[in-house]
Amino acid sequence: xxxxxxxxxxxxxxxxxxxxxxxxxxxxxxxxxxxxxxxxxxxxxxxxxxxxxxxxxxxxxxxxxxxxxxxxxxxxxxxxxxxxxxxxxxxxxxxxxxxxxxxxxxxxxxxxxxxxxxxxxxxxxxxxxxxxxxxxxxxxxxxxxxxxxxxxxxxxxxxxxxxxxxxxxxxxxxxxxxxxxxxxxxxxxxxxxxxxxxxxxxxxxxxxxxxxxxxxxxxxxxxxxxxxxxxxxxxxxxxxxxxxxxxxxxxxxxxxxxxxxxxxxxxxxxxxxxxxxxxxxxxxxxxxxxxxxxxxxxxxxxxxxxxxxxxxxxxxxxxxxxxxxxxxxxxxxxxxxxxxxxxxxxxxxxxxxxxxxxxxxxxxxxxxxxxxxxxxxxx
Length: 379
Hints:
Distance between the termini: 14 Å
Radius of gyration: 21 Å
Strand order of the largest sheet: 3-4-5-6-9-10
Number of strands: 13
Strand content: 15-25%
CATH superfamily of the largest domain: Glycerate kinase, domain 2
Number of domains: 2
Order of helices and strands: EHEEEEHHEHEEHEHHHEHHEHEEHH
Mean pLDDT: 93
């Protein structure tokens, strides 16, 4: 009887998408044995690639909109809508993702979440009554003021002069004027999906945990932290509620905080939401797969905290299906990473390879590793 395999990976940061992983893995498996039945679900746990998960859903229509990227340049970003259920799906990484900014230009003083607001505005204008936002993988630390600016909110200093909505002006904001669109926004049901539980500021906040990987120096980190603290106090005065310590407030450089404060958003775990919508557990139970193949850029001590691999490992254990993982980098022995549902994990990158070269050769390294390991397993 032909083997049945489910391929369900996350994206590899700065290199390949979850869809590309699926294509590579399916091609390798078909070459090993054309009779293997292969199902693919490209996924993201709240970051880049999350939108692609909806391509397998028949009622979701994909659209393209010209928006501002993190550096304020025009790009084309995708979003999707379900006209029947009036649901709009927004992936922040499409407009404000870190992958859109060349490494030498990464600096959170210069990036904006404006494009996210444009996507939200468009979805609402098309009659969507529920917006699901996947906000992982951002290049920004602007506390979401770019997003609010795109939705018509206005920021003013102590002398009531209008301010340009950028990071450098965060500390100058003393008043926030609601958009004429505000009452419409209040009627929309917002759900924010991400795998980050950080508060807005502090040692575990948006700036100090994520700022450095977005290009911030120590001096910039201090400025950003002071700016975000100031902005949170202004917001608290405006809405009579302070969400700065709420789980996920620090997600996407403070977009989480702004979604809570202005959209009354409900926060959910990225994989849990996708699993529910895509009926992943039911599919695994019914199809009785022989193997589940997954992967992501890095497997480390953080992977056990609700990441995709951890969730799939749990499902594998539940239904007695071996889960095979492939990663660009594995930090530590699998036995010590507390991922009991992962049967095997393979690092596709040769040891002592420079990061830039590893990223460049991800597709080649993944193909080689998949071919080698799956041949051993299936033959």
